[in-house]
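Deliverable D5.2: sample structural annotation.
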Amino acid sequence: MTQALYRRWRSQDFDEVVGQEHVTQTLRNALRDGRVAHAYLFSGPRGTGKTSTARILAKALNCSAPEDRRPCNQCPTCIAINEGRMIDLIEIDAASNNSVDDIRELRDKVGFRPSEGQYKIYIIDEVHMLSGPAFNALLKTLEEPPPHARFILATTEPHKIPATVLSRCQRFDFRRIPANEIVAHLRHIVDEEHFQAEEEALVAIARSAQGCMRDAISLLDQMFSFGAETVTLAQVQQVLGSVSAEAVSGLVEALAGRDIPGGLRLVQQLVLDGSSLNEFCHQVVEHLRGVMLLQMARDPALLDDLPGETVRQMQAQAQRLDLPATIYAVKRFSEAAAQLKGGYQPQLPLELALIEAVQGPPVSPAPGAHAASAATHPAAAMPAANAAPAAQPAAEAKSGAAAAASPTQKPGEAAPLDPAAIEKLRRRWKEFSAIVRDRCGIRVQAALNTVRDIAVSDQSVALAFGNNAFTHELIARPETHAQVTAILSDFLGRPVLLECQMGDQARLAHRIAAAPERSAGGEDPLVTYAKEALGAQVVDGSEPAL
């Protein structure tokens, strides 16, 4: 059976490890000076060479060649490790051997001297998968192993490893491999395997691997099995489910030209062609990122891993798009990529992202402008569903608007008025009261319905409770006050401060007074609450004055 390409091209010495010179050079120096630590932690993304480097270090420690040639890959020890039959190299998969019993078994056997080489090497892969008791069982051995034992821990998630273990290891962080180094290594493999490949195809493979050499080699192996004599860019795009760079650039062109119909037609064509919308969305985000980098840094060298024609297209689009629009488009298409999970209309998140990116983020009107508009046209400031009924006489509507637009103010005060807010509270008091009841209960609702007067400024709302100290204190309680303030802020659409006052008149800078509407019978809401909720009765037939 043919061996997988990534296994056949696994690094066999420090020179073959790609993109991790900061690790290999340090290990070489440690071997040369005899300063090899008893425990190492190799952390980093998958497919970046952690396990391969651990095996190379194991060979170098047991190699019989001169120091400057280790590992030689020719002595019996190196050959045994390469063939996977070295007894003194113990590789443990912590994902499936993560119990405390597994680590106890390791601890019991670590004291036996090596059978073939000078050192017994333990490589624990995915070490973060060990259980808490297993880590505790490993601690003492990890801190003071026998002289003939060396531990190499490998993980993709070092933050899950206890600090007590981290402190006992020398840590090396493996980095994602740059795309140009992956391309160079893939070109070497292609030449050695006697295949042909287009440079653009290798670049596409390297970029799709996102710094993972193993993924890149596995995809190249898949392309070798495609059946063609030459690996082409079209074949790579077909296997990846990606679309051509022209389609990606075409969508960004539609965004720059504010051509929503053209962009929607392009998305629809991708759906009909069976292209991967998720992959396409990622390509669009990557393209927009390039445009954003050019807008911010104006340095094409930041995109040296892209074809020259693509960079020139990005430069032209960077001139046509505003930076805020580009940033918003990157955010929206990134969100759409996470939402593309199938469904009845799988392309809908992508279409919405395009439309919203063209239209731009929603802009909230400035508070001052809203207040000025409401003062001039108070009726227009209210939602249509809550506007005055059509049967209301025009004279009554005009008189209400005039009352809202004529504030009383003290000389020298400059707080802006908000007629729209007071009109909203006056006309929609029942709706506001219902929200209070749902969130705070009927008792707080009844207390608010005893309000005699309301005053509104641009930042504050004052409620006057007449001489009803009971309801005033109920609303003024810190917890209730915070809840009512939050509801008022949500209801008015902006943060406000709430003041609870005694007296029949609420007082604020540039006050706009309008008491909430009472029921036709004029019964005090607390009396209503007492009768309906508590079953009380009015003995003398009259309403008590609160």
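Annotation notes: The longest helix spans residues 277-297. The beta strands are 39-43, 89-93, 120-125, 149-155, 170-173, 196-197, 230-231, 453-456, 460-464, 497-501.
The annotation will be released with the project's public dataset once the embargo ends.
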